[in-house]
Structure formats: structure tokens, C-alpha cells
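Our collaborator T.R. sent over the components below with a one-line note: 'Predict the complex.' Nothing else. No constraints on interfaces, no templates requested, no preferences about which chain binds where. So this is a plain run: every listed entity goes in together, and whatever single assembly comes back becomes the starting point for the next discussion.
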Amino acid sequence: MTESKPLQEPIHYVHVDEKICNGCVLCMKACPVKAIRVREGKVARIDDAKCIDCGECMRICPRSAIKALMGTKHKGGSVPRDYFTAVSASTALLAQFDEGILPNDILLGLKRMGFSYVHDQTYTNEMFNVAIELFIKEHREKDDAVFPLISPICPVVVKLIAHRFPSLLKNIPPLLTSREIVARESKQRFVARYYGCEEENIKVVHITPCPSKMICIKEPIFQGSSYIDEAIAISSIYETLKKNIQSVDEDIVLHHAGGIGLGWGMSGGEIAGLDLNCLAISGLQETIKYLEKVEMGLLSHIDYIEFRTCPVGCLGGPYTVVDKYRARHNLRKLIRMFGEEKRVKYDYVKKLYDKGWFHGVSPTLPMNGPLKQSSISDISAAIEKQKKVQQVLKCLPRKECGVCGSPDCPTFAEDVVEGKAILKDCIFLRNATEKNGKTI
Amino acid sequence: MPHMPGLRKHFHIKARDFAKAGESSLAVQSLLKSIGFDPGLVRRVSICAYEAEMNVVMHGGDGVLTLTVAPRKIILDFKDEGPGIENVELALQEGYSTATPECREMGFGAGMGLPNIKKNADSLEIHSEKGNGTHLEISITVREMS
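Returned assembly:
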């Protein structure tokens, strides 16, 4: 066993391959936080400060010029041998196989691939459901939390909130996500099982349907660090795993949960286990729409909202293999098979909850410290800037074409005021001035 | 409305257009957020804007919202060509509503609109009479600031 050096990971996983990108405007138009510009008519550029790694640009790019960087070690699906590895898998992985292959087979397949310890996340999902119920009950009684609470599970949602809806950070309960709990417990159980094994020689690997889970490992946007050491894309191990599943000859039970814990991969799956007033929202535009409603205070009668920015939920993640609708059908069949009730024992989970087993670093402070408070002079300056933006906007054609290199006219107006673009970049203004012989 | 230096923006609100209802207040919310106002203040303003916008949408008659933003004060000025309010005092009572059953089916018209505005605004002036439209002047003073 040797000490392995941490991989040099970029802060953002989404990046543009400049050789392939032809500077079309599709990604720029699709970006929900308006982080992309196509300057000089050539290559799309992503503003790292704004990007939330949602992957919308990857999805829409017709030339596949936008990619997510992954840990290079796992190409070809080999398992690192220089340390003990514990593995947990998103439930989306369990839905990637057709009839006949059950969750337990998949977990055994992972074990056969060489992971020393395989942890069933679906069971922890059910425990997390109970923890949320307890948390909500506790704080509804004390009347000391803001409702609706927002699920901490999807990292893009958390990042989106930190960037665009910072006032809603306090709606995210200070509980560790089930994948984090799995990683923490894996390490402890591993040490207990293999005498003499040090915790630092164990790497917990999470098999993920999306790049955003990789980011929240390396760069947790909230204070505190992740228990997960590495994330591998479902797509990068799929073929190897499939072969290993076919040759499984062990007869151990690794999968313990019922249908509720399995369902988390699809939209509505997390709240299916909650006996509360809940909503499940999926898709990025819908997520933004409903976060706006929450911010306006229109949904305070709701207890809990499950947001997933991928369509259909995690099954629609960029790193999945099987078509998301087929995967959803697979998952539904599995849920029917394992029964729509939780297998965890309420009293047992309550004891753990009371001990603080689920509580993690309070996700109220983003990495850059407390929320910035604007002073009166900041506000005055911002108002003056907005006045200029309105003035520029009045001259613009409002075709929202994106040819200038900004996603729409209002954003272009802002770019002009900020000195990042010039009016001549607007093709309509340029044509009009050429016709009239006037200058802009 | 007295002249006030600051940012001014107009939003057109279409009556009965429930699909687009709420968009003006959302635009107000995101503008104030981008300027950097305190989230609590932004919330108060957007609740007022939303309730007043829904009133215009529900009770018929197109309207215009004029938003004025100054560092210390935000004014929402709603003018509509709707039926007007017959009894302003009654309309300010919680639970009093003249909304149609159709609106109520959609979850609106609980009679909380004007009371909610009054609760969240620093001043609310209503100029209205039956048949002559409604003019709402809502102002919010910026206190939450370091």
C-alpha cells in the first residue's frame, strides 16, 4: 500500500474543447446562470465564478465540444490497487440494468471488480428519510426553522441556491446527505473489519451519475469537507461492471433496503418515503421557477421540497448509460418488487438522530464567508449602473439572438456597461448604422 | 407621484392572463436582488408586487406597474383599468374577496391580497372608485442596511 497523491483536479469539471467548438450559441443560450459568452465569434468561454456545473451546456452541445473532466485514473474501469477501496453507488446505477439483474447482483459485481468493501446506499436513503421527518417534526414544534425545507441531496441545487438565491441557504437542513453518511460509515466499518487498517489508507469511491457530485467532493461549497475521496462516472465503469455481474458466483446479501430507498434515483423518489407535505421538482428551469416562488414566500405551507436539476431526476444525469425513461421503468419495476415501504426501524434511527448521527457542518455559510452586505454607496452605484443598462437596452433590437456573443439583449447591455462588450458587437445596430452612415 | 431620482421601470400587466401572472413581480425581485438590497427587504417588496399584480390579473382591466428604485426607497405604482374597488375599507379586511369562483379554483382570491400588502409595505395608498380603475401606491423604506 503506497500513499497516492491526490489528483490535480480543476475546480470546475465542465470545460470547452476549443478545437471542436465552432462558437455556435446553443450552450450560451442554455446556461441558466448566464456564465457563457462566445466572444470573437469563435469559442465558448465559461466564467468560472458563475458556473454551477449543472451540465446543461454539455447536454445541448451538438458537437460534444463541452466535456466534464474526470479523475483520469479510472479509465477502462479498473479499480485503484494502491489502497483499500470502499464503494457506494447512487441508486441511478441500480436502474441501469434490465430485468433479471437485481440490486444485490450489481453490488456483488462491484465487489468482484475489486472494491474491498461495498456499502448499500439505498438503506441509508431510507434512514435519511426518517431523519428528515424527525427534523421537520422537531422544528415545526419549536417553530424555529424556515419552511419549506430544501433537500440537500442535489449538489447543483445547493450551488444554484448559493449563487442565485443566497437568502434560501437557511432552508437547507444541516444534515449530511445519505452519500456522505455512507462514506463516513464505510470508513469506520472497514477499520473495524480489517484489523490494523488505518483510516487514511481507505479511499471511499462514489459511483455517480453526474459531474456535480465530483465537484462537491473536491470543493464543498460549504465549510467542512467531504467523506468521499473520489467519484467515478457510471458510464466509465459500466461495461466492466456488466461483465463482472455476469460472472458473480457469490451468495452474500449486500442489498437490504425496500423499494423506498431504491427510488431515490428518480424525481419524486426521495419524498416517496416522507409522510409530509412535499413537492418534487425536476429539471433546471422548473427548479429555478420554484426557487423563485420559495423566495417570494409562496410555498411556506410546504414542509419539504425535493429539487433535482436533471430531467426525471438523477437517472437523467450526464454520466448515465441507459435512456432515462427506460431506467425509470427499470426502477419502478424494482420498487414494486421490493415493496413500497421502508425497512429501517424507526426507533433505531431516532436513537441515532438524537445522538447527532445525521447532523453535519451547518450549511449556512458559503465558502467565501458570510453573505456580503451591501452598503448604501454600493446600492447607489448599482442603481446608477442599472440606469445605464436600461439606457443601453433601449437601443437594442430585443431579438435575443445571441450573435453579439452574450446570451440575450439584457445581458449584452450589462456586458456593455461593464466594459466587457462594445455596442458594435450587435449585428442589428451595426447594420442600421451602416445603412444610415451614422456611427454608434 | 412626486418626482424621485432613481431607476424607473415599467411593466405591463395583462388582465386574465394567468399563464404570465407573477412575471412582473419576479422581474422586480431579480432586479432588486441584482442591485444588492437586503434579502428580507427584497422579499417584502416582491410580496407586495406579487399581490398587487395578482389583483390586476384577477379583477380584469390591463394595468401598468411603475417601479422606482432609489437607495433609500422603493415605490411600486400600479394603475389599472379594472372595475375599481367599491369599498376600500372592506377590501382591506382579511378574508374579504370579490374574486370569481374561477379564480378561487386556481387558489387565488382568498381575500389576503391588500391586507398582505399593508402588512409588508411602509405605506399604501389606494385611489379607486367603482368603474374608474384602481391606482395603488406602495412604498417601502430601505432600513435594513449596515
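Summary for T.R.: Residues 121-142 of chain A form the longest helix (22 residues).
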